[in-house]
Design a protein that fits this description.
Helices cover 62% and strands 1% of the residues. The chain has 381 residues and is mainly alpha-helical. Among the domains are: 2-79, no CATH class; 83-231, no CATH class. The longest helix has 14 residues, at 97-110.
Length: 381
C-alpha cells in the first residue's frame, strides 16, 4: 500500500502532512519498495526523518537504482479510484473491504500524529464507504466532546460515507440525533468492545448486572441496544430503569425513557406509577395547590406528566389505583383545570369516573376545551 498511496501523497505541497503519512506506514510495517525508496521524494522524507525509519538494507541498495528511472515507473500509476484502492488493499493484505474500513481506519483515527480533519479527508481516497464500530469509537475519542463529534460526523456523512448497521453504529447515530450527551459519553467511555453490543446473550447478562448495581446509564444503553437488535421483551427492565431515574429526580431522563417505552408499546407497571406519584409530583399541603419550583429548568411538568402516564397505563390495560387519579384530580381542581382533565380520565378509567364525579353527558359542552395532551402523550417539554 505504501507505494500506491505515497505516490499520490507526494503531489501534496505540505511536507509535514506527507511525512506524517510516511511515518504512519513505516510504523505499521508497510515499507516502500526499493524502486520507490530510490525516488527523490522518498529520499527527501528519509532525510527529514533523520534516517530514523530507513531500513539498513535500503541504505546499502538504494543507490543502485537510478532515481529518474524509478520516478518514471512510479508515475505510470493511474489515479486511484475507490474500486482500485479496495482491490490493491485486498491483494496486499488479504483482507476484506469491511475490515479495512474498520480496523485500518480505527488505527488512523487513533494516530495522534494525524489531525482529525486530515484523516477525515483521507477516507475517500482509501475507498471507505462506511465506518465500522471501532473507527467510530476512535473518531469520537479523538473529537473529545459530543458537539465536536457531531460536527465531524456531519462532515463524514456529507462525503457520502455512512455508518454501518452494527448495533454500536446505530446507537451512536441515535444518541447523536437525540442529543443524549450523557448516554453518548457513557457509550464512548465504556470498556466494552464495540462489537459486543451486538451479542444479545452477553448484553442480557450485563443488563442484570447493571440493574443490580443501579448503574442506570449503562442499563439504559444496554436496553436501547437490545431494542435495536429486535429484543423488545424487556418491559420489566425498562420499568426498573424508569424507576431508578424517578428516584434520582432526573426529569430529562424520565421524560426520554417514558417516551421510548411508549414508542415500543411497553406499559408502565403499578410500581412505576406509584414511583411517579411519590417522587415526581411536588409536595402538596392539604387544601392548597402544590408549590411551583422556580429553580433549575425542568424537562417535564409533573402534574401533566403523571396524568399522561396514568392515562397511557389505563389504555394499556393497567388497573391504575383510584387514589392516584384522585390526587391528580384534586391538584387540577385546585389549579382550576379540573373539568377537561376529569373528562379525559373518566374516558380512560371507569373507576375514576366516580372519583371525579364527572357527568359524561356534559362532554359535548366542554369538548372545545383541550388540556393539550395529544393522542401520543407529550412526556416532556
Amino acid at each position: 500500500m505504501y507505494d500506491a498511496f505515497m505516490t499520490e501523497m507526494l503531489k501534496c505541497e505540505d511536507e509535514e502532512i506527507i511525512l506524517s503519512w510516511h511515518r504512519f506506514f513505516i510504523k505499521d510495517g508497510d515499507k516502500p519498495s526499493l524502486e520507490m525508496a530510490a525516488t527523490p521524494g522518498i529520499r527527501r522524507l528519509y532525510e527529514m526523518d533523520n534516517g530514523g525509519s530507513l531500513p539498513a538494507r535500503l541504505r546499502k541498495r538504494i543507490d543502485k537504482f537510478e532515481s529518474a528511472r524509478a520516478k518514471e515507473e512510479i508515475l505510470q500509476h493511474l489515479p486511484l479510484t475507490r474500486a482500485k484502492m479496495s482491490t490493491i488493499v485486498g491483494d496486499v493484505h488479504g483482507i476484506k473491504q469491511k475490515e479495512l474500513g474498520d480496523n485500518f481506519v480505527a488505527k488512523m483515527f487513533a494516530t495522534r500524529a494525524f489531525p482529525l480533519d486530515m484523516v477525515i479527508k483521507g477516507l475517500e481516497f482509501f475507498g471507505i464507504e462506511k465506518l465500522g464500530p471501532l473507527a467510530l469509537r476512535e473518531m469520537a475519542l479523538r473529537a473529545g466532546s459530543f458537539v465536536e463529534f457531531s460536527n465531524k460526523l456531519t462532515v463524514v456523512e456529507a462525503k457520502g460515507i455512512v455508518l454501518d448497521t452494527s448495533v454500536y453504529g446505530r446507537l451512536v447515530q441515535k444518541l447523536t440525533m437525540d442529543g443524549s450527551v450523557q448516554l453518548f459519553d457513557t457509550l464512548i467511555q465504556s470498556d466494552q468492545h464495540p462489537e459486543s453490543y451486538g451479542d444479545i446473550e452477553t448484553q442480557e447478562l450485563l443488563l442484570v448486572d447493571f440493574l443490580e448495581k443501579e448503574d442506570w446509564l449503562n442499563a439504559h444503553l444496554t436496553l436501547m441496544g437490545l431494542s435495536l437488535s429486535g429484543q423488545n421483551g424487556h418491559a420489566r427492565a425498562w420499568n426498573r430503569l424508569l424507576q431508578g431515574y424517578i428516584k434520582q429526580h432526573d426529569f430529562r431522563a424520565i421524560a426520554r425513557t417514558a417516551q421510548q417505552m411508549q414508542a415500543a408499546n411497553m406499559a408502565f407497571t403499578k410500581r412505576t406509577l406509584t414511583f411517579m406519584h411519590r417522587y415526581v409530583l411536588p409536595v402538596r399541603r392539604i387544601g392548597r395547590a402544590p408549590e411551583v419550583s422556580t429553580g433549575k429548568p425542568q424537562w417535564l411538568e409533573p402534574l401533566q406528566f403523571t396524568t399522561n402516564a396514568f392515562i397511557y397505563a389505563a389504555q394499556c390495560g393497567v388497573a391504575v389505583n383510584p387514589l392516584l387519579w384522585k390526587e391528580n384530580l384534586k391538584r387540577y381542581e385546585l389549579l382550576r383545570e379540573g373539568a377537561a382533565t376529569s373528562v379525559q380520565v373518566a374516558r380512560a378509567h371507569p373507576r375514576a369516573k366516580r372519583s371525579a364525579a364527572v357527568d359524561l353527558q356534559q362532554t359535548d359542552a366542554i369538548s372545545a376545551f383541550r388540556l393539550g395532551v395529544p393522542a401520543s402523550m407529550a412526556w416532556g417539554q
